Amino acid sequence: MSVPKALERLLRIRGVEEEQRRGSLDTAVAKLKALEQARHAALQMEKQGRARLSASVISGAIADRQAGLVETEAAQDAPGCSRPAS
User: Do the domain assignments include residue 48?
Assistant: First the structure.
């Protein structure tokens, strides 16, 4: 095999490898964005749960207090939102 043909073959192989790596990178970026969105949603849910809990302390509504606690706990257990163990 002559040198130019070998270099052309190597160039094609490198091109294929680059496409595969780009695909892997795109997949990883999409997963990261999905995790960031899940984290944001969980933080919002936790914030709403704390607000509901605070409001129930003032109003005395036990059902709202329980709902706030459950909502806060569910947000902390949401997938993609792992927190360090205490």
Answer: yes
Q: Is residue 81 one of the residues assigned to a domain?
A: no
Give percent of the chain with pLDDT exceeding 70. 90
Size of the chain in residues: 86
pLDDT at 55: 85
Buried b (16+ CB within 10 A) or exposed e, 43-72: eebbeebeebbeebeeeeeeebbebbeebb
What confidence tier does 57 reach under pLDDT thresholds 50, 70, 90?
confident
Residue identified by tokens 């070998």 is 6
Tell me, yes or no, whether 84 lies in a domain: no
Structural domain boundaries enclosing 13? 3-76
